[in-house]
Amino acid sequence: MCRLFLNTGRIASKKTLEEYIGSCSDYIGGAKLDVHERNETKLEQHKDGYGYAYVKKDHFEIRRYREPIFQRNPVDEIKKIETDVLFVHARKASPKIEVNIKNNHPFYWYNGDEYVFGHNGTIKSQIKNFDDRKFFLKGSTDSEKYFYAMLTEMGENEWKVDKQMLSKILEYWDYTAANFILASPKKAWIGVFYRKDPLYFTMKLYKTEDSIVVSSSALPSLGSPTERLRNGDIIEIDIESNNYYYLSEYRV
């Protein structure tokens, strides 16, 4: 279970980044800006490492850290980055899955095109529907296998993301949630699939004149969300035009 943050276009303000990081600590020392099923009566901290990816000269740079994001607090270093794609993932490890750098998101793959991926939720099923002759596991997470299952299906679908492809991947899996962010230097895709805790797993999209932000957590500095991505929603972001499109109006 994790907290996801994607920012395309103009990078968000220091205040917005602080709100996201605050959500990962569950707002220690202050009022909770985002209340959901998992933090109503207790702390719900995402403290098992974090990572971020950004585009520099048309290629992804990736950083991963073992410390909690709210302990290291990388706001100032992120604000120095010149990029139009930023993806941040703060991890709360699923039960029985090791906490280490190899299991930190975002995951990366290159085949001439580049992709980074992060997941929020736990997939309880054994994931075997990926091409293990092409994709070699570096860690032990369900999330890395999910990424490779998606890439396997994309490779058979002209590298497109759509509802049918995702339905094929998820059809027989048992999961709490299979929310994801997948990004290339030119496009990004967000999918929302969950079976419990809708307040926790609902993604929020904020669109401004020159940016799009998608977050697991509420970001009050950006106002009310432009969209609350509901269960079964899949969207594609065209980074250059600063527009997004629904690939599925399907509702679970």
Describe, in plain words, how this protein is organized in 3D:
The chain has a single domain, classed as Aminohydrolase, N-terminal nucleophile (Ntn) domain (Glutamine Phosphoribosylpyrophosphate, subunit 1, domain 1). With 252 residues, it is of the alpha+beta class. It is 19% helix and 29% strand. Helix 4 packs across helix 5. It has a seven-stranded antiparallel beta sheet, with helices on one face.
Chain-wise SSE layout:
Layout: E1 2-9, H1 14-25, E2 50-56, E3 59-65, H2 69-72, H3 75-79, E4 85-91, E5 107-110, E6 114-120, H4 142-155, H5 163-170, E7 179-183, E8 187-191, H6 198-201, E9 203-207, E10 211-215, E11 227-229, E12 234-238, E13 243-248
Antiparallel strand pairs: 1-4, 1-10, 2-3, 2-4, 5-6, 6-7, 7-8, 8-12, 9-10, 9-11, 12-13
Short descriptors:
single chain, 7-stranded antiparallel sheet, 6 helices, 252 residues, Glutamine Phosphoribosylpyrophosphate, subunit 1, domain 1, alpha+beta, 6-stranded antiparallel sheet
C-alpha Rg, in Å?
17 Å
Helix content: 10-25%
Number of helices: 6
Strand order of the largest sheet: 3-2-4-1-10-9-11
Which residue ranges are poorly predicted, with pLDDT under 50 across at least 5 consecutive positions?
none
Structural class: alpha+beta
Brief digest:
The chain has 252 residues and is an alpha+beta fold.
